[in-house]
């Protein structure tokens, strides 16, 4: 995992099922499609009703007027892009390469424009929204647009037909995290924390959806969204500790043997068990021994999960911060690293956020508010997994409000480390692990 290369990788679009031929992967309830599509159509045709900013009374300064116009244009563009992609999917058209890119940029631009507007006109900050986004960053009247955004990503990131699912995906993640932590010498309490954190990473990357594709990258896939080299690295590291795990958890070792036989020569990232196992070994296993100190420094479980997600986004600075002895006050000021944070929806919205040239880890953790709902959901899933109950996943399910839209922002903001938003310099180089 870690910071991904900005160089385009060979396409895996057919394997990810992004072109929808045949259209099996989009065979969802037609009533739901038509209902959501009508919401988007209404949004496109009635933008004056979507944006309360249109009703701003009195004279505006030029800065305020420009912010108002920029925001209304951004909402219009977001609705238009959503409508275009929905029409392509409904008519079984061949989708463009990286079909989620345009949607992601349009959403980022809408939120950025709204933050600029509320900075210029604080009276335009509205009430709470069902996604838990700070009201200064999101207008609750645009919830239907984000619902449609999430529905489209669910279609575009459906697992490929040859993916190998698990009947207990959450429990698998927790069991693997605990086993790896025990092999690294952690006691029972801290090993349990490793299992909980591992499940948080699963939700951060895919909202707990196993074998997910990636509509914004041809390189990363699977339950923890790894690239080929990361997966290979994880497999090697797992082989080195497999015997020790077998001594204290023979049942897990036997399950691993079965999954290895099942996956065979298939890409290991298309099997939920091996994808999670290799991802945890590649990026996080070597950090697990520090969990005791991390929990002491960051007693909030959500902060702990955010820190491990940062190991995926900016691994080298995060490891340096852990070694510094002053984690929360460790400051990042490298423009490239700040760019990586923005490319993952941290300090990404509005001119004031994007103008930041440095941040402490405490400030970074606080700015990761898009993760909060996801990690809260993972905590509930962890309680069920620890109890040993199976989590049924077969067939479509209706998502609660907290899980829809921004509740699964993983999709786009965390996994992409290849394509740069407009506010990043194209000259920013990728960090190599």
Please supply descriptive tags for the structure shown above.
433 residues, mainly alpha, two-stranded antiparallel ribbon, disordered C terminus
Describe this structure in words.
Helix 8 (188-206) packs across helix 18. The protein has helices at residues 13-16, 30-45, 47-50, 62-90, 101-120, 143-156, 169-183, 188-206, 228-248, 250-263, 272-283, 291-297, 301-313, 315-324, 335-342, 350-354, 361-367, 372-386, 410-413; strands spanning 331-332, 359-360. Strands 1-2 form a two-stranded antiparallel sheet. The longest helix is centred in the first third of the chain and has 29 residues, at 62-90. The chain folds into 2 domains: 18-156, no CATH class; 169-413, no CATH class. It is mainly alpha-helical.
Write the layout of secondary structure elements.
Layout: H1 13-16, H2 30-45, H3 47-50, H4 62-90, H5 101-120, H6 143-156, H7 169-183, H8 188-206, H9 228-248, H10 250-263, H11 272-283, H12 291-297, H13 301-313, H14 315-324, E1 331-332, H15 335-342, H16 350-354, E2 359-360, H17 361-367, H18 372-386, H19 410-413
Antiparallel strand pairs: 1-2
Helix pairs in contact: 2-4, 2-6, 4-5, 4-6, 7-8, 7-11, 7-18, 8-13, 8-18, 9-10, 9-11, 13-14
